[in-house]
Structure prediction request, 476 residues.
Amino acid sequence: MQKFPMFLAGKCSTPNQDLLIRDKYSNQIIATAPLATADHFEKAIQAGCAAAEAMQQLTGADRKRVLHHCVERLRQSREDFVQSLVQEAGKPISFADIEVDRCIETFSLAAEETTRLEGQVIPLDGTARGAGYTGMTRLFPVGLCSFITPFNFPLNLVAHKVAPAIAAGCPFILKPASWTPMCALMLGDILLESGLPGGAFSILPATRHASAPLIVDDRIEFLSFTGSDKVGWQMKRDCGRKRICLELGGNATCIVDEHYPWQGIIPKIISAAFGQSGQSCISLQRLLIHRSIYDAMLEKLIAAAAEVRYGDPADPTTVVGPMIDAAEADRVLDWIEKAKTAGARELLASRKMDGTSVITPGLLDRVPEDQSLCCDEVFGPVLITEPFDEFDEALAKVNRSKYGLQTGVFTDSIKHAWLAWERLNVGGVIVGDTPNTRFDSMPYGGVKASGVGREGVRYAINEMTNERLLVIHQNK
Prediction:
């Protein structure tokens, strides 16, 4: 059994081994790690504040060197990270491979951005009063940051906070999800040997109560949280004056328009809906299909969904692995039963695989909009379908959701693609692909209940920096 340390003020620390980490498929304990207390967070905050000046003084070359070190060590340890994702997150190995590769790309992108923290020169002599004045701007790190990350991408969503912080020159404290802390702690080993200034980072698994200072302490200048909307918006109420970025999920929809050659997109839709057990903020949950192709497409979807492989995440053919725990599996099945009672038609029945938290793929038709399966984030391997007659009607259905993260649109009409971009109240419109499309360089985030602020390496750096103005008066 592995025993992990936590990282307090840039040093290994093992005050206890109170956190038990389970293999999500077998439910066996595979590792232990410390649980940080409020005292540990106080020490981490003090050290992070003390390290802020040293972090700001790092040159672009210094920050690039640290990030390139992370890239190289991640490549060397790639298989270890893949296996950790399979075990601690129950992530099918094919998806774990992708996540590790994306993490490496995220650190590589951050290294490139260290040379692009650009300001601008602002001529101020556009009026007579401004004669002789010139303005210049430059980006400066905000200071100490706190990061709280979720269980579903326990490596790359950590990277999306840590790598931009290093590129921006910010010290940070990270609280990984208690279900899945292993990859974050393995990354801590890499950071420990990277040459960051003393005290510049802490990685502290903890309970929500013990980690409250990450939210409420005014010495922390910036908070980035990825998780549920209920928890995120409460954090925004509690965080005081600090800046905040919230990535809070959604119930992503895909629209398939009239005349689109839909036969070729069935595999994409199946993967977007059921991959990783649907445990992604942009997993495809709602599929709106033009009525003229609805029945034919539904027949193919049912057949394809019935063939999806589920079970052991270590099997390379597995698409649907375990839910994060049995309670989450039971919740999803309960939502399905309530939707059926409310009138939804079950096209492919979900069930729990004996002795596991694996749920088989489910497909339902015409779920009422007031049912949790439609209006909330299911975060499970369930797809619901509904026909529409007019494209405007489909856009309106998307906009009635309380969420607004990403929407996929399959259309061969430039007019409809443009209308979707103009009218959909979401963070991203993906034309020609499913809503779970994400590249690590693009701005990513939502509106409405889906959050505030943007991730994506360059955009996260913007969140973690302040623009400072210099005005120079040339006396003559």
